[in-house]
Design brief:
The complex is a heterodimer of chains A (about 210) and B (about 180). With about 210 residues, chain A is mainly α. Chain A is built from ten helices and no strands. Chain A has helices spanning about 5-10, 20-45, 50-55, 60-80, 90-110, 120-125, 130-135, 140-150, 155-175, 185-210. Chain B has about 180 residues and is an all-alpha fold. Chain B is globular and about 50 Å long. The chains are: A mainly alpha (about 210), B mainly alpha (about 180).
Chain lengths: ~210, ~180
């Protein structure tokens, strides 16, 4: 087939394309992903028993705000990386900001604490399961985010995979925060972050394999 | 030359936007002019693989068509096209073991529409042959609608498929065609 024939073929009967395909696809993916992860948590873990008391503590809201800020940044990154030629711009800085803020808070908390209380602040009771549970809960969201990307056109596949993983991990951490009773900044700065970074790292590997077009 | 590059951007973008709104004459003009720019852009960067140029022009055109839903009208068209052409070019380099030295920087978006070349060589890969390998529910809608110029309604009547199945068949068929190229070479 000659190139002119291909051009004629592609243009023939090419109907209108509805604008906003990228946002629609991500909205749908997030809807299903959040549904899947919430279901997984409801079945396997449940909400913390002292919820009514916890909502009155400022740290409870900090604990939600941390992954929420990362989720917004990761969503921007994923959307931009799904469209050819769209630059990341300030998105990496927006992703670094909540991490730095949480680390600063953690450092402040640790500096003020007595030496023998620091271990408890860092490890809490659940450090060994927290990152794994976040990573596990992120699976439905991860599949949904990759599905969204697969229908769009990422050109930097490893980076796109990282963004999909980080989006899944941060929304999963947000949902997991409703179960987990740890409330210390050093714990969040370390183990929550690690939990979110596991799917992000997986995305760096999966992206180039799965997202090719 | 910057002035003429941005004039190309303005003209092509207008054609593309009209094409996305359903004006297939504008869309045809867009693809036709784009293929000449792609050819010049890729030929310069595939100096050691001259026989691959036309194949890559076709592959990129197919990708542009299949991914046109990712173009937002407020975005510079140059950047969008450049990112797709660059992706396809790097992908080809990766597929070929003997990698061509990348002495030409690929980051310069403005190089995209800087030159144009209407002299098409023969493609080595025959897309018509790949089309023939598609399953019937994709091949027939493409055959009737895209090659013989029938309308959706006429194609539906000729194939006994529903109108939405015809549209889905065309869409999926062209995606499958692009996937065959990525896997096959």
């Amino acid at each position: 087939m000659k190139t002119d024939e291909l051009v004629t073929m592609l243009a023939a009967g090419a109907g209108p394309v509805e604008p906003g395909a990228t946002s629609r696809r991500y909205a749908l993916a997030l809807l299903w992903g959040v549904f899947g992860t919430t279901l997984l948590m409801a079945l396997g873990l449940g909400v913390r028993p002292d919820m009514a008391a916890a909502v009155r503590l400022p740290m409870f809201w900090m604990k939600l705000a941390f992954p929420a800020c990362l989720a917004v940044g990761a969503l921007y990154a994923a959307v931009r990386l799904s469209q050819p030629g769209v630059r990341l711009g300030r998105v990496p800085a927006a992703l670094a900001a909540p991490v730095l803020a949480m680390w600063l808070l953690a450092a402040f908390v640790l500096a003020r604490a007595a030496a023998d209380a620091r271990e408890e602040l860092i490890f809490g009771d659940t450090w060994s399961v927290c990152p794994l549970l976040v990573a596990l809960l992120s699976l439905p969201l991860f599949v949904a985010a990759l599905w969204a990307m697969k229908g769009l056109a990422p050109t930097r596949l490893a980076l796109a995979g990282v963004a999909a993983g980080l989006l899944a991990g941060s929304v999963a951490a947000l949902i997991y925060a409703l179960h987990c009773q740890e409330m210390q900044a050093p714990f969040l700065a370390l183990w929550y972050l690690l939990g979110m970074l596991i799917p992000a790292a997986a995305g760096a590997v999966i992206g180039p394999l799965l997202l090719r077009w | 030359m910057e002035g003429s590059v941005s004039a190309t951007e303005v003209r092509l973008r207008e054609l593309m936007v009209r094409g996305l709104a359903g004006d297939s004459t504008a869309y045809h003009a867009f693809l036709k002019e784009l293929s000449a720019h792609l050819r010049a852009f890729l030929r310069k960067r595939l100096a050691r693989l001259p026989d691959d140029v036309e194949d890559l022009v076709q592959e990129t055109l197919l990708a542009v068509h299949n991914q046109r839903h990712t173009y937002e009208a407020d975005q510079p068209l140059t950047a969008w096209i450049h990112a797709i052409a660059r992706y396809k070019l790097v992908d080809l380099w990766r597929r070929r073991a003997g990698r061509e030295a990348m002495n030409d920087p690929l980051d310069d978006e403005l190089a995209m529409f800087a030159s144009s070349d209407t002299e098409a060589a023969d493609a080595r890969r025959d897309l018509a042959k790949l089309l023939a390998r598609l399953p019937e529910r994709q091949r027939l809608p493409i055959q009737y609608m895209k090659l013989e110029g029938l309308s959706v309604t006429e194609t539906a009547r000729a194939t006994g498929m529903s109108e939405s199945a015809v549209k889905v068949g065309v869409h999926r068929g062209l995606k499958a065609l692009a996937a065959m190229i990525v896997v096959g070479t």
